[in-house]
Please model this.
Amino acid sequence: MSQPEFKNFPKLRKELYIVVFGTETRSGKIFDIVLLWAIVLSVLSVMLESVEEFNARFGNLFAVLEWSFTILFTIEYSLRIVISKRPEKYAFSFLGIIDLLALLPTYLTLITAGGSYLIVIRAIRLLRIFRILKLSRYLREASVLGDALKASRHKIFVFLGAVSTLVMIMGTLMYIIESGESGFTSIPRSIYWAIVTVTTVGYGDIAPQTALGQGFASILMLMGYAIIAVPTGIVTSEIATAERDKQLEESNEKNCDLCGNKVHDYDAEYCKKCGNQI
Amino acid sequence: MSQPEFKNFPKLRKELYIVVFGTETRSGKIFDIVLLWAIVLSVLSVMLESVEEFNARFGNLFAVLEWSFTILFTIEYSLRIVISKRPEKYAFSFLGIIDLLALLPTYLTLITAGGSYLIVIRAIRLLRIFRILKLSRYLREASVLGDALKASRHKIFVFLGAVSTLVMIMGTLMYIIESGESGFTSIPRSIYWAIVTVTTVGYGDIAPQTALGQGFASILMLMGYAIIAVPTGIVTSEIATAERDKQLEESNEKNCDLCGNKVHDYDAEYCKKCGNQI
Amino acid sequence: MSQPEFKNFPKLRKELYIVVFGTETRSGKIFDIVLLWAIVLSVLSVMLESVEEFNARFGNLFAVLEWSFTILFTIEYSLRIVISKRPEKYAFSFLGIIDLLALLPTYLTLITAGGSYLIVIRAIRLLRIFRILKLSRYLREASVLGDALKASRHKIFVFLGAVSTLVMIMGTLMYIIESGESGFTSIPRSIYWAIVTVTTVGYGDIAPQTALGQGFASILMLMGYAIIAVPTGIVTSEIATAERDKQLEESNEKNCDLCGNKVHDYDAEYCKKCGNQI
Amino acid sequence: MSQPEFKNFPKLRKELYIVVFGTETRSGKIFDIVLLWAIVLSVLSVMLESVEEFNARFGNLFAVLEWSFTILFTIEYSLRIVISKRPEKYAFSFLGIIDLLALLPTYLTLITAGGSYLIVIRAIRLLRIFRILKLSRYLREASVLGDALKASRHKIFVFLGAVSTLVMIMGTLMYIIESGESGFTSIPRSIYWAIVTVTTVGYGDIAPQTALGQGFASILMLMGYAIIAVPTGIVTSEIATAERDKQLEESNEKNCDLCGNKVHDYDAEYCKKCGNQI
Model:
C-alpha cells in the first residue's frame, strides 16, 4: 500500500464507520437494508434446506448459498471489528456476540457434521429493523414494554417459583393416581403433563383416563384459571405504570431552578426537595 | 324515455339515494333489513352447499340460489354506483370494494371451476348491522375498541417481531433436538409447532417425545405465560385510556367563569368548587 | 278442617313463608340447608346414573331416588306457590322458572323415554348458597362482577360480531386450501376449527397438514393473541370501574340538603345541581 | 454428660437456634444453603427413580439416597423441635407441618409398599429460598401478590360457583347431544370435557363429532372467551390496588404542618403545595 492510502486510512475508516454502524446517511441506510435482505434470504435458505423435498432437489444450491452468505457476513463482521474505535466494546456487546455466533455454525460443519441449522439465530439480527428504519415510535414502545417487563421480573420470578412447586406436586400426584397408565410413565413426564395443562396448551398426547385422575386434572385446570390471570395482571399493571411514567417524562421535564430536582408532579407549585417556588 | 322522466331523474335519484344509502326513513330501514336477510341466506346457502350430503340432495337448489342472490346483489351494486353523487368515492371505499369482491366469485365460476366459496366474504357486509339498526351505543363502543387497537398497534408490532424471532429459534432448536422424529420433520414445521405452543393452542398433532425436547417445550410454555400477558396488558391499558378519553370528549369541557375550575361532569349545572352557576 | 284452622291459615301461611322464603330464622336456615343437600344429592344421583357400571349395578336405586327427589321438590314447589302473597310473581321469576323446569324432566319420562338427565339444571338452584349463608360479602362481589359484565356487554357484542366474521372467512379459506383433507370436510366444520383455534382451545381433531394451511393457521393463531386480549381488556377495565363505583357508593352517600342530589365527588364543596353549599 | 455441658445447654441452644432458624449469620446462611441443596438432590433423586430405565440401573443407589436424606431431614426436624422456645408453635406452623409430611412417606414404605413418591412435597420447602437469600425485594412482591389474591378470593369463589354450574349444564347437554359417542360416555366425563374446553386447555381426547355437538361446543368456547377474561380482570384490578396500597404504606403518610396537604412522596422534604419544610 502507498503512503497516501495509509494517511487516508483514518478518514476512510470514519467514512466506513458511518456507513456500517450509522443509519443517518443514504449509503448507511442502503448498507443496512441490503444487510437485512441478506439475513432474510440466508435464514429462509436454511429453513427450506431442512424440508426433505427441497433438500433432495436443490441440496447443492443451498450449500452454495450457505457458504456465500457466511463469507459475506464474515467480511461484514471483520469490517465492524476493524473500523470500530473500541473493537472490544462491539465484540462483547449483545449484537456483536449474536453476529459472531451466527457465523460459527457453518464453519463448524467443516469439523463435525450437523448443527448448521443454528444459523437461524441470525434471525435475532432482524430485530435491528426497528433501529434501522428510524422508527422512533417503535423504539419508544419497545422501551415502555421493556420497562414494564423489567419492573415485573421480581413478581414473575416469585410467580414462577410458586408454579414450579405446584406442577411438581400435581405431576407426582397424577403419576401415583394414573400409576404409569396413559402416558404418565414417570414423574418428569407427569410434571411435563402438568405444565402442558396449567399453561392451557393441552396437547392431549398425555391425558388422564381414570375418573380420579380426571377429577384432579379438572382441579388443576380451574386453578390454572386463577394462575394464568396472575402474570397478565402483573404485566398489565406494570405496562400502565410504565406508560404513565413515560408520558410524564416526556411531557413535564422542567427542573427546579434552585436545586435542579426534576419536577414530575404537574400540579406542584414548590420544589419538593428545596422548597423553591417554581 | 320521455322528457318528464329525465326531468325527474335527479329527484328520483335523490329519493333512491335516501332509501339505499340512508337508514333514517322507514323505506330506507326496510331496504337495509331485506338486504341483511338476503346476505344471511346467501352466506348460509354457500356454507351448506359445502356439506357433502346437502350438496348431493339439493345441489341444483344451491346453484339456483347462488345465481339469484348474485344477480340481486349485482343490481344493488349497480344501483349504488348509479345513484351516488361521486360513484368513484363509493367504489373505492372499504365497503364498496367488499361489495364488488362479494360478487366476483360466482361470475368466476363461468370461466374456471371452484372458488365460488369465496362468496363468504359477503359476511363482512353483515357488520353493517350495527350501523343500520342505529345502535349508536354500539358505534360508540366499536369506536372505543378501534381507538384502543389503533393506539396499541406499535406495541403489538414490536411484540410480534420479538415473538417471531423467538418461535424461529425455538422451532429450529426443537428440530435439532427431536431430529425429525414425532412430527418435527422440517424447520418450518417445527416453527409451526412453536407457534401452536406459544399461543397455547396446542393441537398435539406435533408433540415432543424425547425428555430433552419436553424440557425445552416446558420452558417455551412457561415463557408463553409471560408472553401472552403482554398483548393483554397492552390492550387493557389502551382500552382504559380510550374509554377515559371518550368520556372526556363527551363531557362538555367548559370551565367555571368564576374560579376557573374545569367542569368534567356533563350534567353539572353549578361549579362544585365555588357554587357559581354555569 | 275445623274453623280455627281456617282462621289461623293466614298466620300459618305467614310462618311457613318465613321458613320457606326467609333465611333469617333458625328454622328458615335449616329448611334451606336441607333443601341444598337434597339438590346436591339429586344432581349427584343423576350424574352417577349416567355412568354405565353404576347404572348396571344400582339402576333401580337411581330410579327410586329420582322419583323421591322429584316428589319432594314438587311438594316444595307447590308450597312456594301456595304461601306466596303474589304466586304469579314467584312463578315467573328467574328462580321460579328454574324450579319448575327442574321438575319436568322426570315427569316427561312417563310420556317419552330419555331426557331425564336434564334434571341437572337443578344445579342452578345451588347458586342460592350465596344468598342462604348470608354471605353479604359474596353478594357485594357478585354485584360488582355483574355490573362489570353488564357494562361490558355492548363492547362484547361488537367484539363477537367481528370475531364471527373473522372465523367465517378464515374457516372458508382453510376449507379451500386444505380442500376437504385432514378433517376440513365442509365449511361449517372448518369454521368450527377456526373457533377452536382462535379461542386457543386447540383440540387437534382437525388440524392443517399442508404447508400453506399451516401458514394460514399460524397467522390465525397470532391474530388470536391480539383477539383474546380484547375481551380481557374490556372486562378488566370495567371491573376496575365497577369496583371504584361500588366503593364510592358505599363511602360517600351524603345527599344535598337542598335538592337531594346524591353527591359522589369526595372533594365537592357545593352541590353541582343547585349550587347549595354542603 | 458433664455439668458444664448442661450449664451451657441454653447457650448452645441459642447458638443453634441462630444457625438453624436464623439467616443473618454466616453459619446460618451456610446451614440454609446446604439444606436447600439437600432438598433439591432429594427431590431430583425421587423424580429420576420413577423413570424406568434409571430405576433398573441405579435402583439401589436411589434407595440408599432416599434413606440417607430422610435420616438427615429427620435429624434436622428433631433439632428444630428441640431448640425452639415454643416447639408446638413450630410444629403446627405451615412450614413445620410440611417438614413433617416430607419425612413420613419414606417411613411408610416400611409398613406398606408405594407412596414414597410423595416425598416430592419437600419441593414446597424450596420456596424458603426467597427468605434465605434475604431477597427482601422478592418478599415485598410476594406480599403484593398475596394481598391481591386474598382480596380477589371472594370474587374468585363467586366466579368458580358460576363456572361450575355452567360446566355441569353444558356437560349434561353435550352428553345428551352426542349420546355416548366419541368419548362422551357419562355425565361426569362430559363435565370433564366441558372443563377442558372452557379453560381452553383442549386435550382433544374427547371432542364432539356431530354437527349439533360442534355447534354447542363453539358456543361454549366463545363463552369461555368472556369467562377467562373475568379472573384476569379480577386479579389485574386487585394487583393494581395492592401495589398502590403497598406504595402508600411505604411512603410516610405525614401531612404538611402548614397547609395540611397530604404528603405522598416518600422522598419529599418540602410540601409541594405551600413550600413549607417538613
In short: Residues 136-178 of chain D form the longest helix (43 residues). Chain D has two domains: 3-138, 150-252.
